[in-house]
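As a point of orientation, let us examine one representative protein, giving the amino acid sequence and backbone structure tokens.
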Amino acid sequence: MAEINTSEIALKLPLSVDKSGNFVIATTQNQIWADRVRIALGTRLGERVMRPNYGTKIGEALFDTVSATTDIVNKEVYRVFHEQFSLLEITSIDSTFNEISSILTITVIYLLPNKEQVTTEVGIVTVSDTNAPFEEIL
């Protein structure tokens, strides 16, 4: 079995259990930060009771025009990184909306504290007959 660096270990988010009944863990900075970014961008602002400033207003923007939504997504991603992830440096943000599948995909490229570049993608489903509103697609 490979040795795990315990300074880089966290529960994999969203929380899950493997076939053996053990919690799945993230063992690299890349995985740990990507999970944190996905959770923060997929959480509505005010959704967490004890952390009312955690999350984004992206869900509110989903019913706006595509250009307005893109503007809000970019501002919200920068705000979340500034407030929640000050150790990370954003390189670029790309948000695209697929009108057929009703999925907004946000791709964020950023630098970790060790200067490794990471690309994290978050998919957010808009309201449709088969999906709950603002359901995160991983």
About this structure: Strands lie at 10-11, 25-26, 89-98, 103-111, 117-125, 135-137.
